[in-house]
Amino acid sequence: MKRSMAVRRRMCMNIADIMTTSPVTVMLNKPLRVALELMAEHGIKHLPVISKAGHVVGVISDRDCRHALNSPFASQDPRQLNVSLSNQIDVRAVMSPAPIVVEPDAPASEAARLMLTHRIGCLPVMRGETLVGIVTRSDLLMAFINLMRRLEMIDDQQPHADSTG
Fold first, then answer.
1. Quick check: is 73 in a domain?
2. How many domains does the chain have?
3. Of all residues in the chain, what percent carry a pLDDT higher than 70?
4. How far apart are the C-alpha atoms of 66 and 54, rounded to whole Å?
5. 51 Cβ contact partners less than 8 Å away, ≥ 6 residues apart
6. In a 3-state reduction of DSSP, which class is residue 164?
7. Residue 1: per-residue pLDDT
8. Residue 165 lies in a domain
């Protein structure tokens, strides 16, 4: 079945449509413990890393933190951390520097392509030099689910040809 242009336009999504705005961030000179506490407190797995000048200089994930603490099984719960070690390691030592970024008006499919190509779980969303959001794998999966629901609703509204011939 061929879809109309109006339907196709309703199905197009830009990154601004699916990103998390005003993301939680961490300063690059903070101890790893702070990053883990922020992730636990906000229920997130990625943090853009900010320099003293306010620029995005990296991204840190819960997986980066667990590896730095020498265990992929380390809990994200700050109460169960090796507190001594997590206070000795700075975010800058663990983060992925110079992150790939996207603009809010880019298609969501571009974010998916970049994440797959570079095997990363998030992209900071920048408008010029300003961090305006973050888009994650979870955001893309939710967008896909929502898109499929919209398609199902459109299909349900379409008159179906009588198959009795």
1. yes
2. 1
3. 81
4. 26
5. 27, 28, 57
6. coil
7. 46
8. no
